[in-house]
Amino acid sequence: MTQGRAKLGWIAIGTAMILLAAAGGYAWHLVKRQGLAPKEYAAHLGSASVQFDDHGIPTIVASDWNAVAEAQGFVVASERMWQLDLMRRKAAGRLAEWFGAKALDHDKRLRSEGRLTVVAKSVEMLPQSQREFCEAYAKGINSFIRAFPGRWGIEYALTSEQPEPWRCDDTLLVILSMADILASGSRDEWIQQKWRKVLPREWEEFLYTKEHPWNRPFFNVREKAALRLPPESLAIPAQPLNGDELAATDDMVATHEAIGSNSWAWRGNSGAYLANDPHLGQSTPQLWYAARLKVSNEDWVAGVTLPGLPGVIIGMNPHIAWAFTNVGEDVDDLLEERLDASGTKYLAARTNGNEEWRAVEVTSELVKVKGAPAVTIEVRKTHRGPLIELPAGSGKFYSRQWLGLIPGRLGLPSRELASVKDWNDFNSAADHFTLPAQNMLMMDRKGNIGYRASGTGVIRRVDGRIPQPALEGEWAGFAPPAERHRMWIEAEPGKVSSMATANQRMWVDRYGHNWYGEDRQERIVSLLSSGNAHTQRDMLEIQLDVTSRFRRQLLQWVADRGVAAAGREAELKSRWIRWDGSGKSDPASFGNSIQAEKLIFKVLIGRVRAHFKPALDEGDRYDWDLDRAWLLALLDNKGSFGLFGLEETSLATSVIQKIAATEEAPFQEKNAWNGQHPFVGKVPLAGWFFRTKKYDQYGYSDVVRAEKPDHGPSVRLVWNMAVPAESTWMFPVGQSGHLGSRNYADLQGKWAAGEMMKVLPAGF
Fold this sequence. Notes:
The protein is an alpha+beta fold. It is built from 25 helices and 27 strands. It is about 35% helix and about 20% strand. The chain has a 6-stranded antiparallel β-sheet, with helices on one face. The protein has a 6-stranded mixed β-sheet with strand order 13-14-15-16-10-20. Strands 1-2-6-7-8 form a 5-stranded mixed β-sheet.
């Protein structure tokens, strides 16, 4: 009997292996059918032509820009159709149609804001030239979908789905999704206001500072009294530090992504360069699609765009090059509404004491769910935005006043940007970049440098960083493009000039904008100022820089004040004193600095939380992008930790002891790159085939090469304006989105090694 069962077991295993081999063979057959051969492009692009280099990057040539856009749509779809589909569905709130109930909460949140209606109205409001450009791109995508059924990508076969026709609406959805990443923050503000309400004003201004000790804004003057410490009368009572404070499982402080886009222009006798390395979420396929687009030898552009958008977003043409970093402007507010007893009317305005009540606009949307019945959700809106109940079940409603939900605020200026020739042209094109607001840096062939902020500014009556009563918080209007900040630096013979943006505060105004500290910009400026004969390789070395002034100062503070016993504690202290702040020269000390930062914040925020007792929900952590700014103020002012009831020697000694007793994996391994395909770790077996290599990363959120496993530099660009043919770029994975393509991940090794390749092929 036992032998019979064993025999049956081996038969079952053998059968399973045969079926698995057959399935694998079929899957490999599907993989090999992805992508097109050169002759297949020629048969479907009409008068346009395309040539690919060894890394799958196309040069597309056509007679006019609309024809270029149509060919570009076809080419991008042939390599990234699944990514295109995923991006538009995520932005539209339609993931549950493919992935079932697990995506339903995401879809309900987006659909409850009426985004599809906003996008449809915005398409109708596009200037004619932009709409034609957008529709030509959609035509190219749809031509590929129709002409090559079953060759859209193996993901479609694995999910038993197929793509719908692309529309211009979908292109604006992609833009809206980027605005969601770069220009939304009301949910964070909701959490922050819970802390703000219970903190005394002086503590709130300190913990939610709008200042940074190293900030040097481009426009207007800094406040004179910056980063004031709370008075001693409001200090937390002194008490000995206990082990429980360091051992708490709650980190207290929210984990930030590696916000880190950098751009700078430098001109000197040795050359003229514009560098850009935008930082975004990492994935496979990568976010950007590189391309060279050409109408004539005098009318071309090379650069990167997002799949779903025609033209080039960051690039160079025969006359200028341009770069982007995020402004972080606050254009997303929560406004507390006053509803009547029935919940069907809201207080819309008050004039001379007279109240105007309007009906809440109510519509419904059907959310389809794979494997389950469709769900109907109610969309409720005021004229200020969609209504959100916070917290759920509380009976308190807020309008979300977000620029992205106002029809007509989504533009598509990539066609105009491709052909700009000078500063005036550049500004005219930039005026159409309405959302999200960006720091746009440009350099022309003469080495002139220009900066301007794009985007739509909002005119406020009160601070938008905290939820406000609706009548007070409603925006008074919008700042037109002509009023956006800009600066021009004329090239002068023999004179070195430079400008750098890295998400720092660019200007001072009454209400300010969100920004992420000065660490990176301060480091970039110091490196650019270190010589007057920089080379193109120097520009790349700055992009790869992993030195932190803050981390060096933090560990030296701990080492200077802490008492270390013999052994590992003494070794750590000695090493920290000698450390230069570089994550590459001593990654162990760099990792120790991250441990020290987390431990100190855990103690400080834990004491604030315990003393002022904020009424926080589980998981609500202190969250502020400038938290290192006030920690720097503490490090710079002897005895200032007494505000938290702490004695400095005790705190520093405890940190040394804790780190010495903790065994952690090497920092660079814990921080290894992990921008994998969405199937990896989520789709059994199949996901394994989509994985790409992981490699060590030495950067962190406060260094120029800001990187974490799933977030970091998404492309490296160095435009050589004196010799454009020498311009270089590099990407973290590969150009193709097809698993079987040789260009699926062929650039990973070069990226990890800090190599670059030329943008323009010979004879371009």
